[in-house]
Amino acid sequence: MPAVRTLVDLLRGAIIGVVEVIPGVSGGTVALLIGVYERLLTSASALVRGVVRAVVDPLRGRGLAGARTHLAQVEWRLVLPIGIGMVLALVTAARVVEPLLDEHPVTSRALFAGLIVASLVVPARMLGARWRVRDVALAVAAAAAGFLLTGLPSATVEDPSPLAILGSAALAVCALVLPGVSGSFVLVTTGMYQPALAALNGGDVPTIALFMAGGVLGLAVFVHVLRWLLASHRRVTLAIMTGLMAGSLRALWPWQSDDRDLLAPSGDVGIVALWFVAGVVLVGAVLAVELAVVRRRARTASSADDAARRD
Protein backbone atom coordinates (compact mmCIF):
# COMPACT_ATOMS: atom_id res chain seq x y z
CA MET A 1 0.00 0.00 0.00
CA PRO A 2 2.85 2.53 0.54
CA ALA A 3 3.61 2.28 -3.21
CA VAL A 4 -0.04 3.05 -4.03
CA ARG A 5 -0.02 6.00 -1.65
CA THR A 6 3.15 7.36 -3.29
CA LEU A 7 1.57 7.00 -6.73
CA VAL A 8 -1.55 8.85 -5.55
CA ASP A 9 0.57 11.68 -4.11
CA LEU A 10 2.55 11.91 -7.36
CA LEU A 11 -0.77 12.31 -9.19
CA ARG A 12 -1.90 14.95 -6.68
CA GLY A 13 1.28 16.91 -7.27
CA ALA A 14 0.87 16.59 -11.03
CA ILE A 15 -2.65 18.02 -10.84
CA ILE A 16 -1.43 20.99 -8.79
CA GLY A 17 1.43 21.53 -11.23
CA VAL A 18 -0.81 21.45 -14.29
CA VAL A 19 -3.31 23.99 -12.96
CA GLU A 20 -0.52 26.36 -11.95
CA VAL A 21 0.25 26.80 -15.65
CA ILE A 22 -3.31 27.98 -16.26
CA PRO A 23 -3.92 31.68 -15.47
CA GLY A 24 -6.93 32.06 -13.20
CA VAL A 25 -6.74 28.59 -11.61
CA SER A 26 -5.11 28.32 -8.18
CA GLY A 27 -2.84 25.47 -7.12
CA GLY A 28 -3.81 26.27 -3.53
CA THR A 29 -7.44 25.69 -4.46
CA VAL A 30 -6.58 22.26 -5.87
CA ALA A 31 -4.56 21.42 -2.75
CA LEU A 32 -7.64 22.28 -0.69
CA LEU A 33 -9.82 20.20 -2.98
CA ILE A 34 -7.69 17.05 -2.79
CA GLY A 35 -7.32 17.33 0.98
CA VAL A 36 -3.60 18.06 1.41
CA TYR A 37 -3.60 21.84 1.81
CA GLU A 38 -3.02 22.20 5.55
CA ARG A 39 -0.58 19.26 5.69
CA LEU A 40 1.50 20.79 2.90
CA LEU A 41 1.34 24.21 4.56
CA THR A 42 2.55 22.78 7.89
CA SER A 43 5.35 20.82 6.20
CA ALA A 44 6.40 23.85 4.12
CA SER A 45 6.59 25.95 7.28
CA ALA A 46 8.74 23.33 9.05
CA LEU A 47 10.96 22.96 5.98
CA VAL A 48 11.57 26.70 5.69
CA ARG A 49 12.33 26.97 9.40
CA GLY A 50 14.70 24.02 9.18
CA VAL A 51 16.61 25.47 6.23
CA VAL A 52 16.88 28.88 7.89
CA ARG A 53 18.12 27.33 11.15
CA ALA A 54 20.62 25.18 9.21
CA VAL A 55 22.15 28.36 7.76
CA VAL A 56 21.91 30.68 10.77
CA ASP A 57 22.55 28.44 13.80
CA PRO A 58 26.08 27.27 12.84
CA LEU A 59 27.10 30.92 12.43
CA ARG A 60 25.94 31.50 16.00
CA GLY A 61 27.71 28.40 17.30
CA ARG A 62 24.47 26.55 18.05
CA GLY A 63 24.99 23.55 15.78
CA LEU A 64 22.30 21.83 13.70
CA ALA A 65 20.06 20.42 16.45
CA GLY A 66 17.35 23.06 15.90
CA ALA A 67 17.38 22.51 12.14
CA ARG A 68 17.03 18.74 12.58
CA THR A 69 14.04 19.25 14.87
CA HIS A 70 12.17 21.32 12.28
CA LEU A 71 13.13 19.07 9.36
CA ALA A 72 11.88 16.04 11.28
CA GLN A 73 8.42 17.67 11.37
CA VAL A 74 8.17 17.64 7.56
CA GLU A 75 5.92 14.90 6.13
CA TRP A 76 8.53 13.79 3.63
CA ARG A 77 6.42 10.86 2.40
CA LEU A 78 3.83 13.42 1.31
CA VAL A 79 6.00 16.37 0.33
CA LEU A 80 8.54 14.55 -1.89
CA PRO A 81 6.11 12.77 -4.25
CA ILE A 82 3.86 15.83 -4.49
CA GLY A 83 6.87 18.05 -5.18
CA ILE A 84 8.21 15.68 -7.85
CA GLY A 85 4.79 15.42 -9.46
CA MET A 86 4.44 19.21 -9.51
CA VAL A 87 7.81 19.78 -11.17
CA LEU A 88 7.26 17.11 -13.83
CA ALA A 89 3.76 18.42 -14.55
CA LEU A 90 4.92 22.04 -14.78
CA VAL A 91 7.55 21.17 -17.35
CA THR A 92 5.12 19.01 -19.34
CA ALA A 93 2.16 21.39 -19.09
CA ALA A 94 4.24 24.30 -20.35
CA ARG A 95 4.56 22.39 -23.63
CA VAL A 96 1.18 20.63 -23.80
CA VAL A 97 -1.52 22.52 -21.89
CA GLU A 98 -0.76 26.01 -23.15
CA PRO A 99 -1.31 25.21 -26.87
CA LEU A 100 -4.61 23.54 -25.97
CA LEU A 101 -5.71 26.65 -24.11
CA ASP A 102 -4.72 28.81 -27.08
CA GLU A 103 -6.73 26.63 -29.49
CA HIS A 104 -9.81 26.09 -27.28
CA PRO A 105 -9.92 29.03 -24.83
CA VAL A 106 -13.71 29.23 -24.42
CA THR A 107 -14.38 25.58 -23.60
CA SER A 108 -11.23 25.35 -21.46
CA ARG A 109 -12.29 28.29 -19.32
CA ALA A 110 -15.79 26.83 -19.01
CA LEU A 111 -14.39 23.54 -17.72
CA PHE A 112 -12.10 25.26 -15.23
CA ALA A 113 -14.93 27.51 -14.05
CA GLY A 114 -17.00 24.42 -13.30
CA LEU A 115 -14.11 22.94 -11.32
CA ILE A 116 -13.74 26.11 -9.21
CA VAL A 117 -17.48 26.56 -8.62
CA ALA A 118 -17.79 23.04 -7.24
CA SER A 119 -14.59 23.36 -5.20
CA LEU A 120 -16.02 26.36 -3.33
CA VAL A 121 -17.61 23.72 -1.11
CA VAL A 122 -14.19 22.83 0.33
CA PRO A 123 -13.23 26.01 2.24
CA ALA A 124 -16.89 26.74 2.97
CA ARG A 125 -17.24 23.31 4.59
CA MET A 126 -13.99 23.78 6.53
CA LEU A 127 -15.45 26.96 8.02
CA GLY A 128 -18.47 25.10 9.37
CA ALA A 129 -22.18 24.67 8.83
CA ARG A 130 -23.20 28.06 10.23
CA TRP A 131 -21.89 31.19 8.57
CA ARG A 132 -22.04 34.33 10.68
CA VAL A 133 -22.82 37.79 9.30
CA ARG A 134 -19.15 38.73 9.62
CA ASP A 135 -18.10 35.62 7.66
CA VAL A 136 -20.45 36.52 4.80
CA ALA A 137 -19.29 40.16 4.78
CA LEU A 138 -15.62 39.12 4.63
CA ALA A 139 -16.31 36.62 1.85
CA VAL A 140 -18.20 39.22 -0.21
CA ALA A 141 -15.41 41.78 0.24
CA ALA A 142 -12.77 39.20 -0.73
CA ALA A 143 -14.84 38.16 -3.75
CA ALA A 144 -15.03 41.78 -4.89
CA ALA A 145 -11.26 42.13 -4.47
CA GLY A 146 -10.65 38.91 -6.39
CA PHE A 147 -13.03 40.06 -9.15
CA LEU A 148 -11.18 43.37 -9.53
CA LEU A 149 -7.75 41.72 -9.37
CA THR A 150 -8.54 39.21 -12.12
CA GLY A 151 -9.82 42.04 -14.31
CA LEU A 152 -6.50 43.89 -14.38
CA PRO A 153 -4.96 44.14 -17.86
CA SER A 154 -1.93 41.97 -18.47
CA ALA A 155 1.48 43.57 -18.65
CA THR A 156 4.23 42.78 -21.16
CA VAL A 157 7.93 42.66 -20.34
CA GLU A 158 10.31 41.88 -23.20
CA ASP A 159 13.61 41.75 -21.28
CA PRO A 160 12.91 41.45 -17.52
CA SER A 161 15.60 42.37 -15.01
CA PRO A 162 16.76 39.82 -12.39
CA LEU A 163 15.11 41.89 -9.65
CA ALA A 164 11.80 41.89 -11.54
CA ILE A 165 11.99 38.12 -11.97
CA LEU A 166 12.73 37.59 -8.27
CA GLY A 167 9.88 39.85 -7.18
CA SER A 168 7.28 38.40 -9.54
CA ALA A 169 8.25 34.83 -8.62
CA ALA A 170 7.93 35.64 -4.90
CA LEU A 171 4.44 37.06 -5.48
CA ALA A 172 3.47 34.08 -7.64
CA VAL A 173 4.45 31.59 -4.93
CA CYS A 174 2.44 33.56 -2.38
CA ALA A 175 -0.51 33.20 -4.73
CA LEU A 176 0.19 29.47 -5.13
CA VAL A 177 -0.04 29.04 -1.35
CA LEU A 178 -3.24 31.11 -1.11
CA PRO A 179 -6.35 29.35 -2.45
CA GLY A 180 -8.32 31.39 -4.95
CA VAL A 181 -5.36 33.30 -6.37
CA SER A 182 -3.51 31.89 -9.36
CA GLY A 183 0.28 32.06 -9.38
CA SER A 184 0.39 32.05 -13.16
CA PHE A 185 -2.18 34.85 -13.22
CA VAL A 186 0.17 36.96 -11.06
CA LEU A 187 2.90 36.30 -13.62
CA VAL A 188 0.52 37.38 -16.41
CA THR A 189 -0.33 40.61 -14.57
CA THR A 190 3.34 41.43 -13.94
CA GLY A 191 4.31 40.57 -17.51
CA MET A 192 6.43 37.56 -16.50
CA TYR A 193 4.17 34.76 -17.77
CA GLN A 194 5.65 34.51 -21.27
CA PRO A 195 9.27 34.82 -20.03
CA ALA A 196 8.60 32.03 -17.51
CA LEU A 197 7.11 29.73 -20.15
CA ALA A 198 9.94 30.54 -22.55
CA ALA A 199 12.51 29.72 -19.86
CA LEU A 200 10.85 26.38 -19.09
CA ASN A 201 10.44 25.40 -22.74
CA GLY A 202 13.89 26.64 -23.75
CA GLY A 203 15.82 25.24 -20.79
CA ASP A 204 17.08 28.71 -19.76
CA VAL A 205 18.78 27.58 -16.53
CA PRO A 206 19.82 31.05 -15.20
CA THR A 207 16.29 32.44 -15.62
CA ILE A 208 14.72 29.31 -14.12
CA ALA A 209 17.14 29.60 -11.18
CA LEU A 210 16.06 33.21 -10.63
CA PHE A 211 12.39 32.22 -10.65
CA MET A 212 13.14 29.41 -8.17
CA ALA A 213 15.09 31.76 -5.87
CA GLY A 214 12.22 34.24 -5.89
CA GLY A 215 9.78 31.42 -5.15
CA VAL A 216 11.83 30.27 -2.16
CA LEU A 217 11.95 33.85 -0.88
CA GLY A 218 8.19 34.27 -1.18
CA LEU A 219 7.53 30.91 0.42
CA ALA A 220 9.87 31.66 3.34
CA VAL A 221 7.97 34.84 4.19
CA PHE A 222 4.35 34.06 3.34
CA VAL A 223 3.89 30.48 4.48
CA HIS A 224 4.45 31.40 8.13
CA VAL A 225 1.99 34.28 7.91
CA LEU A 226 -0.73 32.10 6.38
CA ARG A 227 -0.17 29.26 8.85
CA TRP A 228 -0.47 31.73 11.73
CA LEU A 229 -3.68 33.13 10.24
CA LEU A 230 -5.20 29.64 9.97
CA ALA A 231 -4.20 28.87 13.56
CA SER A 232 -5.18 32.20 15.13
CA HIS A 233 -7.94 33.54 12.86
CA ARG A 234 -9.29 30.43 11.18
CA ARG A 235 -12.84 31.61 10.46
CA VAL A 236 -11.72 34.94 9.05
CA THR A 237 -9.05 33.29 6.87
CA LEU A 238 -11.36 30.60 5.49
CA ALA A 239 -14.12 33.14 4.76
CA ILE A 240 -11.64 35.28 2.83
CA MET A 241 -10.32 32.21 0.97
CA THR A 242 -13.86 31.31 -0.08
CA GLY A 243 -14.49 34.84 -1.31
CA LEU A 244 -11.21 34.97 -3.24
CA MET A 245 -12.04 31.69 -4.96
CA ALA A 246 -15.47 33.00 -5.93
CA GLY A 247 -14.09 36.33 -7.17
CA SER A 248 -11.38 34.62 -9.22
CA LEU A 249 -14.11 33.08 -11.38
CA ARG A 250 -14.09 36.32 -13.37
CA ALA A 251 -10.84 35.16 -15.01
CA LEU A 252 -12.64 32.00 -16.14
CA TRP A 253 -15.71 33.56 -17.79
CA PRO A 254 -15.62 31.70 -21.11
CA TRP A 255 -16.26 34.72 -23.36
CA GLN A 256 -13.72 37.51 -22.94
CA SER A 257 -11.40 39.64 -25.02
CA ASP A 258 -7.61 39.57 -25.03
CA ASP A 259 -7.69 42.46 -22.55
CA ARG A 260 -10.00 40.45 -20.24
CA ASP A 261 -13.13 42.46 -21.05
CA LEU A 262 -16.18 40.27 -20.36
CA LEU A 263 -18.26 39.55 -23.45
CA ALA A 264 -21.79 38.25 -23.96
CA PRO A 265 -22.19 34.52 -24.68
CA SER A 266 -21.85 33.64 -28.33
CA GLY A 267 -21.29 30.65 -30.61
CA ASP A 268 -22.31 27.18 -29.44
CA VAL A 269 -23.41 28.08 -25.90
CA GLY A 270 -24.78 24.59 -25.28
CA ILE A 271 -21.40 22.92 -25.75
CA VAL A 272 -19.74 25.48 -23.50
CA ALA A 273 -22.39 24.85 -20.83
CA LEU A 274 -21.76 21.10 -21.05
CA TRP A 275 -18.04 21.63 -20.39
CA PHE A 276 -18.95 23.77 -17.36
CA VAL A 277 -21.28 21.05 -16.06
CA ALA A 278 -18.55 18.46 -16.67
CA GLY A 279 -16.22 20.42 -14.37
CA VAL A 280 -18.88 20.62 -11.66
CA VAL A 281 -19.66 16.91 -11.93
CA LEU A 282 -15.98 15.93 -11.83
CA VAL A 283 -15.31 17.81 -8.61
CA GLY A 284 -18.65 16.73 -7.17
CA ALA A 285 -17.72 13.09 -7.77
CA VAL A 286 -14.35 13.57 -6.04
CA LEU A 287 -16.04 15.23 -3.06
CA ALA A 288 -18.62 12.45 -2.87
CA VAL A 289 -15.89 9.81 -2.81
CA GLU A 290 -14.01 11.76 -0.16
CA LEU A 291 -17.16 12.01 1.99
CA ALA A 292 -17.81 8.28 1.65
CA VAL A 293 -14.23 7.48 2.69
CA VAL A 294 -14.42 9.82 5.70
CA ARG A 295 -17.71 8.26 6.84
CA ARG A 296 -16.33 4.75 6.41
CA ARG A 297 -13.28 5.63 8.49
CA ALA A 298 -15.51 7.14 11.16
CA ARG A 299 -17.63 3.98 11.30
CA THR A 300 -14.51 1.81 11.48
CA ALA A 301 -13.08 3.92 14.30
CA SER A 302 -16.41 3.81 16.15
CA SER A 303 -16.59 0.02 15.80
CA ALA A 304 -13.03 -0.30 17.08
CA ASP A 305 -13.86 1.88 20.10
CA ASP A 306 -16.94 -0.22 20.87
CA ALA A 307 -14.91 -3.44 20.63
CA ALA A 308 -12.27 -1.99 22.94
CA ARG A 309 -14.91 -1.08 25.52
CA ARG A 310 -16.41 -4.57 25.42
CA ASP A 311 -12.96 -6.10 25.95
UniProtKB/TrEMBL annotation:
Membrane-spanning segments: 12-37, 78-97, 109-127, 133-152, 164-188, 208-229, 273-294
Q: Which UniProt keywords apply?
A: Membrane, Transmembrane, Transmembrane helix
A Pfam family recorded for this sequence: VCA0040-like
Top-rank lineage group of the source organism: Bacteria
Q: What is this protein called?
A: Putative membrane protein
Look up and give the organism this protein is from: Agrococcus jejuensis
